[in-house]
Amino acid sequence: MTKTVLFSAPEASWQNYKPYLDDLFEKAGLDINLVLETDAPQDVDYIIYAPNGPVKDFAPFTNVKLVQSLWAGVETALTNKTLTQPLARMVDPGMSEGMADYVVGHVMRHHLGTALHVAAKPGEWLSHWAPPLARNRTVGFLGIGALGLYCAHKTAKQGFNVVGWSRTLKADDVVKCYAGKDGLRDVLAQSDILVLLLPDTPETTNMINADSIAQMKDGAAIINPGRGPLIDDTALLKGLDSGKLSGATLDVFRVEPLPANDPYWIHPKVLVTPHIASETRLETSAAVVVENIGRGEAGQSFLHLVDRKAGY
Ligand code: NAP
Ligand code: GLV
What digits encode the pLDDT tens for the residues 203-212? Predict the structure, then answer.
């Protein structure tokens, strides 16, 4: 029997996804009617979802087996009280690759002290300092899930000592893993560069605050491609101004787009990027969507289901 899949993401992405998904559904032997809109919500079997897509009220979709997010972060989806159906976040190998490019690139920028030379005035020959070797520096990852662990491995390949922190303790051949409050303290104390790849949940809000900054190494740098609320902005600005922290690369903010009068824009130690660290890639994410719907049709458990209690 033909199944109906509703595509509820911005219409612009429909043009790209539609032929890809139709082709992959056919190759997977799935009989799917992929639609952009419907008058019969009770007949929809699956929803492909983005928070900026048209469906806001999920209540009429009484027979939906899975809402598959195209986004990795699901904090917006979780605030929608009508979305009670099983929800899967996006775990996309292409997004991980892009995130690793961003993270390794900015780790290298902080490691090499690039900002110092970019800001140098003509004739300012800043030869008093050369970077240490990567193997003598530690990069810490708060969050070693799909994105964090992939980025941590790529960073280790670059030669850095790499440590990571998660809610549940992990074991990894390359990344020294920590969990819990003591583990957080250990990671903060060791990291020359700290990368935030945590989800936005009640437990992770203001994870970087005056207290955690005080526990960090003098001169450490922070890279945040996770979510804006992970950082207490006042505390970060203080940490930068006092000289405790050497710099910050920020991709995500409490308010996006970041307002023009936000102090981050003009802070000499801050690089603002506009939530572009990585995005869902068409080819790889379409394969994930089709695999998960295929699993539903085969009576198998879905991949990457959101744990609503944990908030991610
Ligand atoms: P994920 O696979 O769910 O991994 C999340 C990691 O955070 C896991 O290691 C998890 O621990 C850890 N964590 C969650 N709550 C914690 C807590 N209270 N204490 C300690 N660790 C905690 O997520 P992901 O796919 O890697 O994505 C991470 C985030 O990146 C997303 O939620 C999104 O906000 C952000 N993101 C940003 C962009 C961008 O362009 N800027 C793009 C995509 C995603 P466990 O391993 O124990 O579960
Ligand atoms: C982007 O920020 C995502 O959550 O996919």
Answer: 999 999 999 9
